[in-house]
């Protein structure tokens, strides 16, 4: 059983969930899920979407639902305090299902950070709340996607996550980079015992020998050399210039070569830009460092199309399949 928190009720979480579950049913590969949300809202959303969506929808009545009713009015497309409070409560309850042994993995639909903040929950995102619920100092954010031909998997881990760019140099410590390398290695060894890992530089041209920044010369290169010596079975490359770091990944995604088994990006957009350019509909946000696996679609709440029936469920489908495969 996979616990599935339905995300911000003003967004597209219910729609992509019901479409993904219907796609699994059509394939004959149904994944057992325990939905966490408001039963009345979900059933009404199903009725409304059937009038608008050309894509099949699963009947929510076919799945167990941990019913946590909405406590205020929610308007599709308008994330506010009521929708933020609901998505926060639903995430917390879904984690309880996993920690209590009633589910083995967690999949989460998108939430809106500003709606959480309006409801009084000041977290940068779901990842940080998950770490808190599990008593962990941090959880690592990795994005994974199978290439269209299925022969290669793009894995990109973010060393730092939802923080302003100006704070990255202070947050990016040697201890953090080493920790994230260990997380990336452990994940990649699920598929390849002796993986090839690539690390992006922080500065343009990876510092260009100290001419464009000193972080690489002062501590990043020595750290990577030391880490490589302690992990001789791993092929470690970097720090590479960020603007060319993912060129091998792009070729592998097209089936024209073999990229690295894992990439370490040093800040949020550095890693997410290549991931979303290559695999927007296929990438899955995966939380590492928790006592269970958590997956989520690599897109937001879609407030601009909420309730229209137009949302694509490819990423939610990939998130459920990844949770089932790796959880």
Report on the structure:
The termini are close together. The chain is built from 11 helices and 11 strands. By secondary structure, it is α/β, with parallel strands linked by helices. It has 2 domains: 173 residues, 3-Layer(aba) Sandwich (Isopropylmalate Dehydrogenase), CATH 3.40.718; 149 residues, Isopropylmalate Dehydrogenase, CATH 3.40.718. An 11-stranded mixed beta sheet has the order 3-2-1-4-11-10-5-6-9-7-8, sandwiched between helices. The protein is globular, with a radius of gyration of 20 Å.
Supply the key terms.
Isopropylmalate Dehydrogenase; 2 domains; eleven-stranded mixed sheet; alpha/beta; about 325 residues
Q: What's the arrangement of secondary structure elements?
A:
Layout: E1 2-5, H1 13-27, E2 33-37, H2 39-50, E3 65-67, H3 81-99, E4 105-108, H4 113-118, H5 126-133, E5 140-146, E6 153-158, H6 168-171, H7 174-188, E7 196-200, H8 215-230, E8 235-240, H9 247-253, E9 262-265, H10 268-279, E10 284-288, E11 293-297, H11 314-326
Parallel strand pairs: 1-2, 1-4, 2-3, 4-11, 6-9, 7-8, 7-9
Antiparallel strand pairs: 5-6, 5-10, 10-11
Helix pairs in contact: 1-11
Gross morphology is globular
CATH topology of the largest domain: Isopropylmalate Dehydrogenase
Low-confidence stretches: none
Number of strands: 11
Give the CATH H-level superfamily of the largest domain. Answer: Isopropylmalate Dehydrogenase
The CATH class designation of the largest domain is Alpha Beta
Q: Give me the number of helical elements.
A: 11
Please report the distance between the alpha carbons of the first and last residues: 10 Å
Q: Radius of gyration from the CA trace?
A: 20 Å
SSE order, one letter for each helix or strand:
EHEHEHEHHEEHHEHEHEHEEH
Strand order of the largest sheet: 3-2-1-4-11-10-5-6-9-7-8
Strand content: 15-25%
Q: What is the correct CATH architecture of the largest domain?
A: 3-Layer(aba) Sandwich
Give a quick account of the main beta sheet: strands, pairing sense, barrel closure: 11 strands, mixed
How many domains?
2
Secondary structure category? alpha/beta
Average per-residue pLDDT, rounded, comes to 96
How much helix, percentage-wise, in residues?
25-40%
């Amino acid at each position: 059983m996979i616990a599935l928190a339905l995300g911000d009720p003003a967004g597209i979480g219910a729609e992509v969930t019901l479409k993904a579950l219907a796609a699994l049913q059509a394939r004959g590969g149904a994944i057992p899920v325990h939905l966490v949300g408001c039963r009345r809202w979900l059933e009404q959303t199903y009725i409304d979407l059937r009038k608008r969506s050309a894509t099949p929808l699963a009947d929510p009545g076919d799945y167990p639902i941990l019913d946590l009713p909405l406590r205020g009015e929610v308007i599709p497309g308008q994330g506010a305090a009521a929708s933020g409070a609901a998505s926060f409560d639903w995430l917390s309850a879904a984690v309880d299902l996993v920690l209590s042994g009633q589910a083995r993995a967690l999949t989460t639909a998108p939430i809106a950070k500003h709606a959480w903040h309006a409801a009084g929950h000041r977290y940068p995102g779901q990842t940080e709340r998950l770490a808190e619920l599990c008593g962990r100092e941090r959880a690592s954010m990795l994005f994974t996607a199978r290439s269209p031909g299925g022969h290669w998997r793009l894995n990109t881990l973010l060393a730092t996550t939802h923080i302003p760019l100006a704070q990255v140099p202070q947050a990016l410590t040697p201890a953090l980079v080493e920790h994230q390398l260990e997380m990336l290695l452990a994940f990649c060894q699920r598929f390849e015992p002796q993986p090839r890992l690539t690390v992006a530089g922080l500065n343009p041209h990876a510092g260009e020998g100290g001419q464009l920044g000193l972080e690489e010369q002062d501590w990043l290169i020595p750290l990577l050399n030391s880490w490589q010596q302690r992990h001789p079975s791993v092929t470690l490359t970097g720090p590479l210039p960020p603007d060319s770091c993912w060129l091998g990944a792009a070729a592998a995604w097209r089936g024209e070569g073999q990229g690295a088994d894992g990439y370490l990006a040093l800040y949020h957009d550095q890693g997410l830009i290549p991931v979303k350019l290559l695999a927007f509909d296929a990438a899955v946000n995966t939380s590492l460092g928790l006592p269970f696996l958590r997956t989520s679609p690599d897109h937001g709440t879609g407030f601009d199309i909420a309730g229209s029936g137009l949302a694509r469920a490819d990423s939610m489908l990939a998130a459920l399949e990844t949770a089932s495969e790796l959880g």
